[in-house]
Structure formats: C-alpha cells, structure tokens
Records
---
Amino acid sequence: MKHFHIYQRIKNRPTYFRCIHPDCKHYLEKELVIGRRAECPYCHDDYVIQRRDLNNKTPHCSNCIAPGYENNTKTTKMKPKDKLRVTKLQTLFEDKVSKFLEGVER
C-alpha cells in the first residue's frame, strides 16, 4: 500500500508517532519522523515534517490550523459583555473610516 502517512503521537509512547490510515501499521520514533514527507490530516496536501510540527498531537502543514483555532487564537464562546465591546469597536472603526473617506474625496 503506497500512500503518504498521516502521523499522530501514540498516547502511551509519546516519543513515537503512528500512521492513522486504517490499513497502515507504520510507526516511527519522533527523531526519525523529522524530514519525512507526510499528508496533512486537514487539507490532505503533502508536506515535509519539521521539528516544530511534532509539538502537536497530530502534525499538520503550516497552511492549516488545528480545529478549534481561528487566526491562531483559540475560539471560545464570547460572553455577552465581550460581544457588546466588539460591536462597539466595529461601529467606532466604521465611523472613523467613513469620516476619513469623506475627507479624502473632498
């Protein structure tokens, strides 16, 4: 079976990574995974694993971010007070931009 592996850290052996394809029994030690070509579990493009990728439980390419994260910040449910602050900032920003554009057009 030829494919690029999708690696995931083994829970009870944190220095080893295994392929998560259902028919694949491949696993390697952490140091041997560095520099290997693998498949990104999110976008399914191939990429070369670097040392920093191995900090994740499931390494992925640099173009993708893990689920639950948006713009590299963890997404959580906002409190109503925070939502109000965000909407105030958005309206303030929109007003300033429109005033600036009016001044430019004159």
---
Amino acid sequence: MAGVQGEYTFVPHVGIRAVGLAIFGAGFNSMNRDEYILSAIVTPVLHLGPELKILDTVLMLGLVYSYHHWESKASHPGVGGSRTVREGNLHDVTFGAGIGFLFKFADRFKVGINLWLNYDYGVVSTYTMRKKKGNRIILPVPLIEFTVQF
C-alpha cells in the first residue's frame, strides 16, 4: 500500500484534506498479484488540542471513491502459472471517518498514525468467476503519516 496526502488549513484548527491510496495485490486481502485498488478521500479535518506543544490530534469525516480492478485466475495443477479467465472493475462512492495522533518534533515536522474507518464493501466471487460487491463492512485502514509543513 502506498499513498500521498495534502491538507490546506483555511481557518485556525480547521482544514480540508485530500488523500490518494493505492493498494496492490500480492496476497493482500485475498487479492492476486494483478489486482489493485485506487482510492481517493476528501475530508474536512478538525485539529483538537492545538495548545499542546508535542501532540496534534485530528478528527476527520469525509467522502471516499474507490476503483477496484479484479481478475479471476484459473490455475492448472502441476503448472507453475495461472491465466486470467475474467477481469473487470468495481466503482464505489462511500464515506468514512478517522482519527489521527501526530507528534510534533520540530516547527514544521510531524509524524504519527491515522486510523481511517471506511464504510466499504466486501468482494464476492460468483460461480461464473466474476467478482461483485458484497455486503457493506467497516474496514479499518491504519495510515502512517510523515508531515512537512510549508
């Protein structure tokens, strides 16, 4: 998983954050190596406890768009590879919420962890080897953050 984010604070202690994430297969969450998920999050951010000198606590609640490219593979016993039988894409717009704890170790540098709870869907394989959206689930996504302020 890899990502990038940017935040603009337009009034003290309140801002807007945009986050882009890419999750690549290779065994993550039962995805094969040719599958991937691209997500974009747009959320208002509330910085709590700004009077604290070393800790920046944030609350977030926003919209999430996700693009999931899936492939169904047919494996052959005794053969080292597998071939793609079916492939497709799933699109979804949903919401999520998060909390973050960032430690300020210099005037413009912070490091910490965010926990994003996404109201996402499970992926279900059908008997025709297609994948479709399943029931909604709460998906926790921990994110390590390194911040350089300009």
---
Amino acid sequence: MLTIATAARNIANALTAAGADVQTFGSGLSDSQYVRAVHAGRTATIRISDHDLPPAHQGERGEDFRTEVVLFAILGGNWLDAAVDTIQALGLTLPAYLRRLVTIRQRERRAVVEQAEQDQADRVAYQQEVESKAAELASRLSDEDRAKAIAIDASGERGQVRRRRLGRIAARYSATPGLIRRAITL
C-alpha cells in the first residue's frame, strides 16, 4: 500500500526531475504532507493526505495551481496524476521515466477496458446460447411436463425442493432445472 510519505517523496522526486524547486513539509496537525513546487515564478502545492481537507482550513494560499492526493486504504491514491498535472501546470516537460509510467498505465487501462468489453461480449454470447437452448427445449417439452413444471415453479416451494422437483423433469430432457424454468416462460 502506498503511504503518504512515499507518495509525497514520489511527487517531490518527479517535480525535481522536471526542473522545479521543491519543498516538502508536514501539516503539523495530521499525517498530511505538502509538496510545494516553484518554477518561473509560478507556485504549485500538492496536499497528500488520508482525509479531505476540513472546510475551515480551505482558502486562498497564493498558489497558481493546487491539487490534492487523498490516499484511502481501499482506493489508493494517484500520485502520478498529481505529479503530471503539476508539472504541466508549471509549464515543465515530463521527465522520461514519468512518460514511461504514463504509457504503462495507459496500456494497463486499455487492457482492463478490453477485458471488460470481452467479458461483456462473452456474457451476451452466453445469454444468447441459453435463450437458444431454452427455445429448443420449449419446442421439445411435452404438454404434460410443461404443465408439471409450471405447477412446480408456481408452487412457492423453497428453492432446493423446487429445483429437485424440476430436476426430475429436466433429467428426461438432458437439461437443468434453470433451463426448464426458462423454457416454460417462453
């Protein structure tokens, strides 16, 4: 897990590598850390914390740019975004190692999006397959078995008992109780 101190150090190193004059200091009231960067007369401050800034402490501090990285244990914080945004706000060029990190992150995000799209396509294909099997089963289901299955499904019996009873009908058709339920609703 990324700590406040590590995030502050990463941001300060990135800003220093980009050519800014950097100062790091603590809040004195909490574990929050601040990284102040100055370049060409412009000042930027980044607050790194595990909590939002209380309203009483918010206000104008004479900075040209200000951003926050709030680190929560579950979410993590994104020190890289804060560093990149600050470097760009100060009119500096991103160091090569930051450009590589940004590229790696973009590839990872694309891979996540592509995986999510593939998962969605797989779910749609599976649902279409189930619908097709249910339609095929509905055409083979005898009137007697259909009536029994409808009665069992509407009986209000608890799930396991209902599945067992539907399973007896499903076994005659090499199907599952769920597929029987789907077929009788078509």
